[in-house]
Amino acid sequence: MKTENIHTHNSPASPSPKGARGKEIIRLEHIARDFHVGDEVVHALRDVSFTIREGEFVTIMGSSGSGKSTLLNTLGCLDTPTRGEYYLDGTSVRTMGKNSRATLRNRKIGFVFQSYNLLPKTTAIENVELPLLYNPSYNASSRKQKAIESLKAVGLGDRLNHRSNQMSGGQMQRVAIARALVNDPAVILADEATGNLDTRTSYDILVLFQRLHAEGRTIIFVTHNPEISTYSGRNILLKDGRVVADTENNTIQSAAEAFAKLPVEED
Predict the structure, then answer these.
(1) Could you tell me if residue 1 is inside a domain?
(2) What is the distance between the alpha carbons of residues 154 and 211, in angstroms, rounded to a whole number?
């Protein structure tokens, strides 16, 4: 991993200059998350504060036990903090009820998971349509059209009616990315999105993420793999539930160039 020309923000809450041109999408203020395990209290997150602005590509890194998964669940509105405030696109999340949080999650966040989370016996179109089923502004016809557009945007225009068991891992992850994009969310939240893929396919997916970022998408990529951070503009490092570094990368590597240098695998 290259570290030259990377510098640390003055404070964890300050945005990167690249992101400064966009509006604030995420603000965490002194977030703590405690879990009771028997008689003990586990402090999974401790006083976490940072801001992410529209158009940033941020990696969040940390080893097992760092609080990475708890932070992911907090950012994704799947869990609420014990203390502190979380604002998603200007809306305070912490005091929301479960149903309101679910609606906000559906409209504002597109999820991409390591295991794809596709329905196995349904087509690519049907998988991508799923988030729109909860959006009353779409009828059956407009849902299908939006799903097709989203699949074409990730290079799967020729796989619209393929089922999950008819696709490769890389194609399934592209379906998952199309599903994440279909509601035009404020944030794409990726959880180890290349973790189940071989090297070539991983770079292929990183090329897609970099293209989406270049188109103005805000991306948060949660990973344990340090190499991923060389392809993003900013890296937040967690350890023992705290942000221990928030660094800016001024030498962003091109995933397309890295992909082009990989040896072609023979059948």
Answers:
(1) no
(2) 10
